[in-house]
Amino acid sequence: MSVTIIDIAKDSNTSKSTVSRYLNGSKVKPVAAKAIEASIKKLDYHQNVNAKRLVTQKSHTIGVILDDISNVYFSEILSGIQSVAGNQGYVSTFYSRASDHKRETDFLSLFREGHIDGLILGTFQKRTPQELEIIAKSEFPIVLIGDNCGSNRINSVDVDNKQGTMDEVEYLYNHGHRKIAYLRGPLKISGAEFRAQGFIEGMHKHGLDSSLILDIEWTVDGGHNAALQILQDASVTAIICSNDYCAYGALNACRQSGLRVPEDISIVAFDDGPLAKFSIPALTTVKQPFKQLGETAARQLIGMIQEESPVKASILLQSQFIVRASSGAAPAQTNLENKGETYGS
Amino acid sequence: MSVTIIDIAKDSNTSKSTVSRYLNGSKVKPVAAKAIEASIKKLDYHQNVNAKRLVTQKSHTIGVILDDISNVYFSEILSGIQSVAGNQGYVSTFYSRASDHKRETDFLSLFREGHIDGLILGTFQKRTPQELEIIAKSEFPIVLIGDNCGSNRINSVDVDNKQGTMDEVEYLYNHGHRKIAYLRGPLKISGAEFRAQGFIEGMHKHGLDSSLILDIEWTVDGGHNAALQILQDASVTAIICSNDYCAYGALNACRQSGLRVPEDISIVAFDDGPLAKFSIPALTTVKQPFKQLGETAARQLIGMIQEESPVKASILLQSQFIVRASSGAAPAQTNLENKGETYGS
DNA sequence: GTGAAAGCGCTAACAA
DNA sequence: TTGTTAGCGCTTTCAC
Question: Confidence band (pLDDT; 50, 70, 90) for A1?
Fold first, then answer.
């Protein structure tokens, strides 16, 4: 059918094995190498990866399973994975949970059937203990993107959501804010939980009340409604929104209530999506290193595959706090109010 | 090493080929089937896809090459591809141009090396004639997402950008707008060109002047600056923005200029990104069927792979015009003005 | 360094 | 229907 190494061997007066060695970088006499090279060009030879995979028992493929491909941020993660995988001679194949009608843990058969050498499991949802256990027990190279729920037997990469939010609290505190509200995202998403912890811990660090927390969906509407409610209390000088979307909603609510941002109230967000710097006013927010998340996971995974090293690591990537126009110093009157309270106690 | 069909054959007192037949759905005596089934369970057999690929010369893999994975909309396309590919027993593997240091047209070797059975090439940029020629001449199943530059020898799927924009012109015309400005996107992006054609054609259809076109980058800033310029001319009653981003910029420019949207001026956009319905005012825009784009391409590709049919088709998917708050009737005074001009001429 | 030979796990004639 | 046999195209001992 197609040109094989046997054809090359014949044409170059060598043998199958010599051609194979040449192709794989083993020592071959220069004369032979020249001849083989010429034959390959002449006959337009292309290796058959499936034959190679069969005999080497390696697919040089890394599998990627993401909960929801269509999520905006996943595409950046994917791009990061792709980039390092490509450089290391791996291709990445995509499996979505949704279209896979089999049971959840069928990712193990991807290994057994020879589809993949390693797997990146990405999710923003919390994983079940059972699933975590399967991953931990399996002898296959798997890296989790997201929360590993404290299991030190699972390799994982995540963004330091907690620290990101603590940075925001710190910033607001330094700008005189004392009464700060928090819009907490859905608790089934692990990042939302860590962010909320960051809020609570950051507030406590300065002896501030962290009870002004509203639970919302991560939508513009969710942020809008919650902010409207918060704004009833005129003493609140800042709202920390747990993602960009709800911050847009909060921004709208402020405008609707006749409040100026940031003069009357500060709004800070989380994510730094593509529109964050263009909203009016531009959003102060925390940038998540999505691409780096993918790159790191891929690098870690390929390390596991190649060295077969059983070293487990949980990597936490730092986010970046970006100050823009939606936040600033707490309004003077409220500062006085707060000072008064402080004196009184 | 691992359990093979030979092991199953021995354990079930049948032969290799019978097991293979059972596995592939050929007729096998019920007794044998039962025995084989039991052995498979007992020995925990998993097929080796690479052996199968080697002998059948089919990878059941479709390759996807997108110009820029991290583009927000590509993730939806990808999700569409994934969804139909998965249902048809195909996996999708991802190759990005960027990380591939080889020459552009190396996608052909993906076929020759047995990586893929078919390829989806997605790009919003215009392809070069040389590349188009390579695709057209190749005997491999390839579907293009985007502009096929009129080549009827290439299977392709695209959004009907022109019609989408014509719908907008039609709508504005019916609402009394006569002087309409257009923010044209980068011409290297084929969709931008078709949209602009739709504007020109739509305007001409009603005998309107289509010369008020400004070239911009598809960014919020780009839209902002261009709109500021357009607003100098108070007789303009509507701006058609060629994507959502620049529409946000135009919205900001209007606010900054003290113009009310839609009372004083109508803004319409293109894309219907995730924030379109939440901006203030919510954007009237054209929704692109990205997921369907991916689904259609995948279906078409799998059709080519399986039937080997040489039928070439260019599919144009309809966009959906969505009216929201950023557009409305042309302001009365300007209508009068226009009427005056009409009478005078 | 090189060639001969064995075999990776599977499918697909072919004959029974 | 089934088993036997011959490969698919490659890597990898092993002896030279």
Answer: low
